[in-house]
């Protein structure tokens, strides 16, 4: 297989939740591959530190674009996603979006009996409704290009899920439901769009060292659940011997974004260091 099959130079990737954690590592992988990045971040966050980090990852002599757009996923609607996508296409150096990564997520440590519908709706909106709407709107752009301009073109949509779609934990009812739904959303969209020029796949990360996971552990402690033993057990179950670092997902992202994965459709790619066995 030629290395060129993994080449995504001059492509344009739109990544939600790209300001930190796995999303930032994904954006970094794209910049390192000379792929232009449109970073979607929460309006209350400052992306300048993330942008500075990405600028340091540009290949020498390359002018890879790094674009930031604020967006509130908590109140996402089709109209708001259409407006954002229109703005993203306008700012795109090629006026295209070739890759969509639905990465943004929210999780809260709440027992089922204490779960309010407000919290449930927020978790479902960010983790499931937003990926559906972004896929629907950006997917239409990809399909139009395939059908009207370039039948050799394939758009790539990559959803970021979690192995918690398979291994539910306490304090995480809404989150696990949303991530399970994201797997089936991926398969449904793939069934509809594989012959329309789009590959839709999902990555299911295992235990990862991110700020969100650390916050969840703090919330569990405050709720009276001992997490140190859970952490020890989790680490001992990982054959690789450690939790994942966000950078561990870079290779999988580049593969699913490139021509090398053109025959991969509706797949759940588990990246967990062997945790699931």
TrEMBL record:
It comes from [Candida] railenensis. This is D-arabinitol 2-dehydrogenase [ribulose-forming]. Residues 225-235 have a biased composition (Polar residues). Keywords: NADP, Oxidoreductase. One of its GO terms (molecular function) is oxidoreductase activity, acting on the CH-OH group of donors, NAD or NADP as acceptor. Belongs to the short-chain dehydrogenases/reductases (SDR) family. Pfam families: adh_short_C2. Residues 219-239 are annotated as: Disordered. The keyword Glycoprotein does not apply.
